[in-house]
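The material for today's practical consists of a large collection of protein records. A record pairs a protein's sequence with a compact description of its fold. Instead of coordinates, the fold is spelled out as a row of discrete tokens. We will come back to this pairing of sequence and fold again and again. Here is such a record, shown just as it appears in the course material.
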Amino acid sequence: MRKLFGSLFLVGVLLVPGVALAHGGHHHVMGTVTAVDATHVEVKTTGGKARSVPIHSDTKFFKGSKGMVAGAASDLKVGTRVMIDLEKDGSAHEIRLPSAKHKM
């Protein structure tokens, strides 16, 4: 019985860091787009704060909640709800938008 619990504990210890790093250490911003231009997206967060997030040519865009498909910067519109994965420097790594059929 001890060996079983010891083995389960060891497996848990080995798996936790992998799960913790699954998002690559990215922070997130969730909210509604209040303004957008070629280099920034302004978001009113779910906490009610305004947040300006730089976007760049490497920023990836995805649409839909299930089976996400590629999107584009042109999909960002004022009033759209978004979830943004941030790089360490605070710029957008990935922006997720709802599909045309579904609102987040």
In short: The first strand starts at residue 27 and ends at 36. The chain has a mean pLDDT of 78. The CA atoms of residues 27 and 66 lie 21 Å apart. The first helix runs from residue 2 to 20.
